[in-house]
Amino acid sequence: MHTPRRSRRTVAALTGSAVLALLATACTGTNSGGGQDDSASGKDVTITFWHGWSQDNETKAINDNVAAFEKLHPNIHVKVVANIADDKSEQALRAGGSDAPDVVSSFTTDNVGKFCSSKVWTDLTPFLKKDGVDPAKTFPAAMLKYSQFQGNQCSLPLLGDAYGLYYNKTAFAAAGITAPPKTFSEFEADAVKLTIADGEGYKQLGFMPTYHGYESVPAHFLGQYGATYFGEDGRSNIASDPRVAAMYTWQKGLVAKLGGFEKLEKYRTGFGDEFSSKNPFHTGQVAMSIDGEWRTASLAEEKPAFEWATAPFPVPDDQAATYGRGYQTGTIIGIARTSQKQAAAWELVKYLTTNTDAVVSFANAIHNVPSTIEALGSPKLDADPNFKTFLDIARNPDSSTTPASINGGAYQVSMQNLGYEFESGKQTDLQAGLANTAKEIDAAVNQAK
Amino acid sequence: MALHSSVLLRRKHRRETARTLAFLSPWLIGFGVFFAYPLVSTVYFSFMKYDGFTAPVFTGLKNWDYVFNHYPFFWQGLRNTLWLVVVMVALRVVFGLGIGLLITKLRTGTGFFRTAFYLPYLAPPVAATMAFAFLLNPGTGPVNHLLGDLGLPQPGWFTDPSWSKPALTMLAMWGVGDLMVIFMAALLDVPKEQYEAAELDGAGPWQRFRYVTFPNISPIVMFAVVTGVIQTMQYYTQAIVAGKVASGVIGGSGQQFEPGYPHGSTWTLPQMVYSLGFQRFDTGSACVVALVLFAISMAFTSLLLRRGAGFVSNED
Predict the structure, then answer these.
(1) What is the predicted ipTM?
(2) Do A269 and B246 touch (CB under 8 A)?
(3) Domains of chain B by range and CATH?
(4) Which Gene3D superfamilies match (chain A) (predicted)?
(5) What is the pLDDT of residue A99?
(6) Domains (ranges, CATH) in chain A?
(7) From the candidates B28, B53, B182, which should be mutated to test the interface with A, based on the most A CB atoms within 10 A?
(8) B293 in contact with A at a CB cutoff of 8 Å?
């Protein structure tokens, strides 16, 4: 049997193990790269490229592009590793070592601020200058914005995503609606008309406005307002930009008009996985949704039992002239600071991000928006009318993105949390909530400096 | 002669010390590598700005100030963690002991029930949590369908802040097989003659449990409580998976995953260590939270062992 003293010792050891389990990986050293290789003089170099794509058509598309690159650069060999989540590549970049990647892509542009400020990814400006690539003339403005942080161009866009409206044409016809809405007042009226009650729930909901309704999140709605997040002094300005308060108020009003928060949330829990055929738009559970261009491919493939179409997401009534805009994001690609083969790595990054044929063929293969100005206008681009909606959004000068921040997307988490509190009625004073959230964002940014 | 003898004694003493250290060395090395070094490092980095990539810079109490005064989730996470420690550990111990008692009393089917209650423990935590999220889905889950058919209220479970922690506790009780096996072994070790003597003295079932069973198994109960507290202080996987599945948020640009869904009700301190250290690259603040976790673990276990000194029977 345990005596108390022995037990205490055992407990101390167990507690120590607990702490170890939490912290064992937290304390690693640092190393720096920046090494040049001899790839320019024709010497054989092998670089490693990690990316997050996993589906067969996606990995085939990227492998095809890499093969074309290797044909152009016979001395540069690329070891491609697919299906790498951001968390995993971050830890590999921390650890460095011979197996760490040279070239890394990430689906989350929110990471750019972290990667650039902590110099995890190397600044590409010297490479761009050396090869005469002018980023402002090469990449659309919103895409360029999300791939840099405070002048450090540590990543480049590698295909983009644009957000627009998907609508069920069959349901529209049944409700007597002849065209997609362009303003929020039209959108609200249509959403109400398209909502068909079924006892305590819905047979069909016009639109799912709650912030857990997949892509119905503050950042995507704020894109329609052209709202700003930070002032010129770098401090959060969400409490002073009236467009932010307008968005929260509009969303809450829509929640109320469509049945209230609790009823909507209960309906939402019956939705299937977002990236499956059980997506509520595919199943007809919602008649309209905000989503990215990739949905065109899955809808075309799955052929739901109704007609559908796309349009830009509506805009606030007082900004009707900006109709056609949308939120934009995308995949980014960069070079690990620890890479000892940065010259070869840059050749691959340059090819994948600026070679028009490479960008267009990749965009056609995986149905993402091309990330260069030239590729967006390429005649080789597959552009059926539904996909063209998103190409136009990407080209629209009013389209916007979420800015890079030193601590990644932490400010968006704060804004989402405010959204959850406000839509559910836990927070009733919006202005006070915005002021507190701004303070919270500033404290987090200050902590990361 | 005396000098010679004292030299010999010193040599003997040194030899004994060296031998003792040699025998202790595996533990000493383990203690140093797996306990002392991480603990000292954690204290060191809690005073540094360190992102894991660039050299650490001393920032004094900045991380401590941020975690306690500005990090919006800390106090809620602390409250959640303590709630889970108190409620989940207590219910797991009571439930595990109850199942163990029932099965040891069975005359037939012991093997079947033992297996049936032990099997869920073997399920990987992620799979078990996803299965529970499916069963407890407020809109489509069979549990709420059944409750509805019976005319009973249908909770929001993982989507309702007042039900999310009870739902996690139910999941923990479902996987109580490990405790059940330990309690069964202890219960079967209780000398039968003590029960016979108690029965002859006219003791009823409760008195037999109170005065015979419990004193015999009290060290095992203490073991279960102490290990349960330590495990629950590290509670991470189930809380984060349940939150992620129920929230429907996949994550991605403009759409951040919100740990603690709904309304921060499932945030725990270990999630904060991960979130601060590995998502925000704020290793310093992560170390502060880890040290808080360590201090609370030590306080809980010391308190339990001191208070439990009279509660645990040491007859043997």
Answers:
(1) 0.75
(2) yes
(3) 2-63 (no CATH), 72-308 (1.10.3720.10)
(4) Periplasmic binding protein-like II
(5) 79
(6) 9-161+328-395 (3.40.190.10), 163-322 (3.40.190.10)
(7) B53
(8) yes
